[in-house]
Write a structure and sequence with these properties.
Largest sheet: 7 strands, mixed
CATH architecture of the largest domain: 3-Layer(aba) Sandwich
Helix content: 40-55%
Oligomer: single chain
Radius of gyration: 21 Å
Structural class: alpha/beta
CATH class of the largest domain: Alpha Beta
CATH superfamily of the largest domain: Leucine Dehydrogenase, chain A, domain 1
Bound molecules: NADPH dihydro-nicotinamide-adenine-dinucleotide phosphate, (2Z)-2-iminopentanedioic acid
Distance between the termini: 27 Å
Shape: globular
Number of domains: 2
């Protein structure tokens, strides 16, 4: 890491004790920015690096609600409004028992650079709660969402902060959140949340966007090698929103997804994942991945172990942070995998990234690969602002064009700053420069 940046990183460690994921995300970005410090002293002079590491605003609140047994439950809610130089804060809400300030800050920090990289007018933020939706009834989820929004509503708005989904937050939760926002404010302010349903202000393709965008990015990597997805063996981790639509797009483009997972284990299905069955198990029944194996005689369920043990040409981690470690990376490389593209946020550990680089496996980071989700959220905001709605085809074409642009920007910037072919350097530097220039223009605020 550049000398000037080492001091900043040390300060981040001191000021944010115990927030391991946040430290990891900051370190990864600062590691890439050495050539920028050398080339553009104006950023350090205006303390842009230090300002970027300190969220503009952090909100932590109590979320009380009553469960189906009549018991009062207490969760903790978060919204970290990280940087608004490029537009209103934008980023998802995560409901998962592991959520604490360090996870929300890592995600909010990543979101600044990801959103910048899309070229769209959106700042970076993230929120969520340690609420665990697993095993909760619709009524419990609704009451939780209503209580969460009863505090959050005062901090958000179409020109202020625009949340969306993430782990544990999909169409059902966005519906309950929007309903409560509308009730409290007495405003049908469509642009306050994205990921809405199609009949009440949502955009075509938003549901599919992160998974589709991930695969569009991989297609671009392959196109550069004069190759395509046709006939490729792909392993996807997770079986949630991002995973399901990544699987669908790989299949549409002629690849075969031979394995996917959830937190209880993974399934191997050499004939290719049956997407209709997977969606029924995960989206309709909200069941465990074992239910898939029970209904597909040729599929094999593995509980424990790592989905990355399954040999593949392309690996798409689409579940959660730090789910692919150095050992997994070595296994993938040994089995002939040539591309690891992050559908999730920071799923590869730093050791995994190093191992992949040494083995010559192409690594594409989440802030570039999964940016199609938030980019399509920005398209949803555009449609809401103009009270328009576009067709599926038009919106998917826009998404594909945005992903091509991000891929191109990563490679051009990596070249320009002396790391040809390094997608991480390209994404971090390109994302940084756009937001840093805006911060310089807006003064010390
Ligand atoms: P979902 O809640 O729809 O699915 C999450 C999937 O990951 C589930 O299969 C879940 O398994 C698994 N998972 C979650 N946490 C863990 C864990 N701690 N250990 C093992 N498996 C886990 O979330 P999304 O698909 O929306 O999000 C997946 C990833 O993609 C996240 O990193 C998210 O930040 C990122 N992302 C999402 C975007 C979006 O538009 N939704 C946009 C950009 C990035 P189980 O059901 O067993 O918990
Ligand atoms: O990590 C992400 O980019 C998301 N969860 C999507 C954010 C959004 O505002 O659509």
């Amino acid at each position: 890491m550049d000398e000037k940046l080492v001091d900043i990183y040390d300060e981040v460690l001191q000021r944010n004790p115990g927030e391991q994921e946040f430290h990891q995300a900051v370190q990864e970005v600062l590691n890439s920015l050495g050539p920028v410090v050398a080339k553009h002293p104006q950023y350090a002079d205006a303390a842009v690096f230090r300002r970027l590491c300190e969220p503009e605003r952090q909100i932590i609140f109590r979320v009380p609600w009553v469960d189906d047994e009549g018991q009062v439950q207490i969760n903790r809610g978060f919204r970290v409004e990280f940087n608004s130089a490029l537009g209103p804060y934008k980023g998802g809400l995560r409901f998962h028992p592991s959520v604490y300030l360090g996870i929300v800050k890592f995600l909010g920090f990543e979101q600044i650079f990801k959103n910048s990289l899309t070229g769209m007018p959106i700042g970076g933020g993230k929120g969520g709660s340690d609420f665990d939706p697993k095993g909760r009834s619709d009524g419990e989820v609704m009451r939780f969402c209503q209580s969460f929004m009863t505090e959050l509503y005062r901090h958000i708005g179409e020109y202020t902060d625009v949340p969306a989904g993430d782990i544990g937050v999909g169409g059902r939760e966005i519906g309950y959140l929007f309903g409560q926002y509308k009730r409290i404010t007495n405003r049908y302010e469509s642009g306050v949340l994205t990921g809405k349903g199609l009949s009440w202000g949502g955009s075509q393709v938003r549901t599919e966007a992160t998974g589709y965008g991930t695969v569009f990015f991989v297609e671009e990597i392959l196109r550069d090698r004069k190759d395509s997805l046709d006939g490729k063996r792909v392993v996807v981790s997770g079986s949630g929103n991002v995973a399901v639509y990544a699987i669908q797009k790989v299949q549409q483009l002629g690849g075969t997804v031979v394995a996917c997972s959830d937190s209880s284990g993974y399934v191997v299905d050499e004939a290719g994942i049956d997407l209709a069955l997977l969606r029924d198990v995960k989206e309709v029944r909200r069941a465990r991945i074992s239910a898939y194996a029970e209904e597909r005689p040729d599929a094999r369920l593995v509980e424990g172990g790592s989905v990355w043990d399954v040999p593949c040409d392309i690996a798409l981690p689409c579940a959660t942070q730090n789910e692919l470690n150095g050992k997994d990376a070595a296994t993938l490389a040994r089995n002939g995998c040539t591309i690891v593209a992050e559908g999730a946020n920071m799923p590869c550990t730093p050791e995994a990234v190093d191992v992949l680089a040494e083995a010559g496996v192409t690594f594409a980071p989440g802030k570039a690969v999964n940016a199609g989700g938030v980019a399509t959220s920005a398209l949803e905001m555009q449609q809401n602002a103009s009270r328009d709605s576009w067709t599926f085809q038009h919106t998917e074409d826009r998404l594909a064009e945005i992903m091509r642009g991000i891929h191109e920007r990563c490679l051009t910037t990596a070249d320009e700053y002396g790391s040809p072919g390094d997608y991480s350097a390209g994404a971090n530097i390109s994302g940084f420069i756009r937001v840093a220039d805006a911060m310089l223009a807006l003064g010390v605020v």
